[in-house]
Amino acid sequence: MKNRLLVTFLISSFCFFGITNAQEDDADQDTLLQKKYEELLESFEYYKSDTIHSKVFALTYLQKAKQERDIIRQADGYYMLSEITEQSKALAYGDSIIMLTKNIKDFNYPAKGHLLKARIYGGKSQFKKAMDELVLSNKYANENENIDQQYKTKYFIALLKEDLGKSLESLESLKSIVNYYGKQFKDDHTYEYDYIKSLFALGSSFNKNKIYDSAYTTNNKAINLSLKSKDSTLYGRLLLSSGRTHYYKDEYTSSLDSILKFKKISKNKPQSIGTSIRADLFLGKIYAKQKNQKASLIHLQKMDSLAYAKNYYFPTIRSGYELLIKTYEEKEDINKQLLYINKLLYVDSILDTNYKQVYVKINDDYTTPNLILEKEHIINSLQKNNKNTIITVGILLLLIISLILILVRNVKKRKVFQQRFLDLYEQNSHSEQEKTDPVTNQISETPAILNKNDTIDIGISEIIINDILKHLNTFEKNKDFIKTNITINALSKEFKTNSKYLSKIINTYKGKSFSNYINELRIDFVVEKLKSDSKFRKYTIKAIANDIGFNTTDAFSRSFHKKTGIFPSFFLKQLEKKQNEEEKIIT
Questions:
Q1: CA torsion 99→104→106→110, rounded to 10°?
Q2: How far is it, in rounded angstroms, from Cα 470 to Cα 505?
Q3: pLDDT 10s digits, 36-49
Q4: Which of 138, 139, 167, 537 is most buried, judging by how many CB atoms fall within 10 Å of its CB?
Q5: What's the number of CA atoms in the CB half-sphere (13 Å) around residue 558?
């Protein structure tokens, strides 16, 4: 503490009052140079947000290393300077690191220099250059078996994939990265920043993949950690990510609140180009949703100006230009409409050219070498066990057998699916007739009123049971089950009962849970409608799902498969084929 106070006093005197005597200047410099590297680094980290103070420690660290001809410490000094300086100088420091360390064997260098340059190039939207650096950092990290650097490289690759529109690939990588840093953070809190940063990236990826609940949970976890952390530099970006999640969930007021908070916080803190552009992009989209065209245009034009000035474009930015084109079309401003059409075409040309090149490079120069390395590890492991030939042959045999088994399984699976379709096609009409009233032609699985001997003791009076069964009977006859967003609470209110009674009666007399009851009614209904209605068969799976009350295509497909053992796409394809065959026979 005394040392830190002394250093602070010396620096403050130097910065604010000036040192007129050269001997005093040398004496103060000598005082700092006498300190240990660890002390200088600690002071640098302590004053990191104050670039004037922190630069003194970084320069002293570098000077001390040069005097002692310590190459690794010199590289550390350049890296410290890169963290507190603007991007062009930081790139030069990265070059210095690489030049110093490229011919030495070290656990961290020169990979650390290449990672530094990759981060800066990525922030400037120079993705091809960033990828070139990542290829080299990956090479050195693998050679040194430096797991941390392997994951840092993997992290930047995941971000590049995200920007390339390969969101699902990025998501899978980020899950493993978060898992790694989460485990490290439990044992070592110096991993805190990396863990929060990876959570931020994962939340953003969940947004891109439309998994909004997971994005919301991940963002909140990262925000809470950031607020508890001494280093809250990521807090603003986390607010922006949270705002994007709210936007995708149609929660525009909450989205606006989060992004405006981010704007306020980041006024005095420099943000990356991409972060600033995304903030204005989403503000423009939010205001458009809120019918505030003037505010929307202000932010979309800011987005365009910054993107154009820095030549920074990414797939999501297209939606901003599309909104500008639409807005000026509505305003009947043909000149502006044409201007942004041309700009969008320019954006597309950049994305199409640059991004394809980078993605090819990711596969050729990153993914493939890593797969080869993994293969080499496997081979080395086999050689160590002196079973290389036997195991290799065994693996090949297993692969061949596995392929045969997969083929056989697929053939059998297709036959099973085909048989299930035929059973459904031939038997469903019969089973439907059994449970359909011949007079009303309505579904009637359970009598509206039960005899006393038919009731089951479930702790509910016979009158209430019969009343609810009567309501259910009407509910089925009227096909109310195809309405969207049916809940047990809403239905129990409609039946003038409580959800507990309704659930018990459905469980007992229908033999299934409430959700299964609703879903199976819908599936029975849609099977018959698809068989009888040729126009309905031309609907997309999504349209069919929406038409019978399902909120998502996935929910419909899962329910259809659970009930019938086949998927709706297969059923439709086979049904169309069957109908065509029957029409040919008739003609």
A1: 20
A2: 12
A3: 889 999 999 888 87
A4: 138
A5: 8
**Structure tokens belonging to residue 394:** 């065994």
Question: Residue 413 — φ and ψ, nearest 5°?
Answer: -60, -40
Residue partners of 240: CB distance under 8 A and separation at least 6: 258, 259, 262, 275, 278, 279, 282
Angle between helices 71-82 and 51-67 (to 10 degrees): 170
Dist. CA 327–CA 325, nearest whole Å: 6
Percentages helix, strand, coil for the chain, rounded to the nearest 5? 80, 0, 20
- pTM, whole model, 2 decimals? 0.54
Q: Side-chain half-sphere of 528: how many Cα atoms within 13 Å?
A: 16
Q: Which residues fall within 8 angstroms of residue 357, CB to CB, at 6 or more apart?
A: 128
Q: Give percent of the chain above pLDDT 90.
A: 48
Closest CA to 60 of 97, 89, 91, 25: 25
Distance, in Å, from the CA atom of 421 to the CA atom of 577, rounded to the nearest integer, reads 12
Assigned CATH for 416-586: 1.10.10.60
**Which tokens go with 446?**
């359970």
Q: Are 144 and 111 in contact (CB under 8 A)?
A: yes
